[in-house]
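Review form for a predicted model. The reviewer records the input and the model, then writes brief findings.
Reviewer: anonymous (R2)
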Amino acid sequence: MTTPRRFTDIDTWVFDLDNTLYPHHVNLWQQVDTRIGEFVSAWLKITRDEARVIQKDYYRRYGTTMRGMMTEHGVRADDYLAYVHRIDHSPLEPNPAMGAAIARLPGRKLILTNGSTDHASAVLARLGIGDHFEAVFDIIAADLEPKPAPQTYQKFLRDHGVTPATSAMFEDLARNLVVPHQLGMTTVLVVPDGSQEVVREDWELEGRDAAHVDHVTDDLTGFLQKVLST
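Model under review:
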């Protein structure tokens, strides 16, 4: 076992968005997931059941269903994103405690998401924490290449002048922490707290014991508070 990387010298804090900055059991992503299935079904003119098989296959193989639909079927990213992110954000509630913890973190705070800036803005506004982040690096900024593609992280680091060795990455998917860890970032996997039902694929919940995961938490606010107290 290797010693987990610590937070002593961290000056840049990088957060995924969905299922990371809000609890998994909100299941906001389930709405997006449903919209994706509708889009795939309509575009390919197939049943919803057939569309779901393709949707999940592309998600696992390409990082996002959108990338698979673009590659395999010529879908335009703008059309896809406009449709799948047209959801009800009202299940999200303000989280002043998390906002206060993020505000106290020393240095810069950035969002790195496979979603769109519009979606990120809506989520951050509902949580009441948007003012704490310097920038959002979304799927458009990534040239439509989603995490976990190595070039996406490299472009993020270049565009925002981020030094991996003094940065921490918070994510809900363990596979999206492989490259950050290889680059030298301290990695944190955010998992469900077990209090309520979570709608996720089994593989999405794996990886807690992976070597590229330095820390695991089911309470992001509490975890950040603990980091600040050490």
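Findings: The chain has nine helices and six strands.
Further findings: The radius of gyration is 17 Å.
Recommendation: see findings above.
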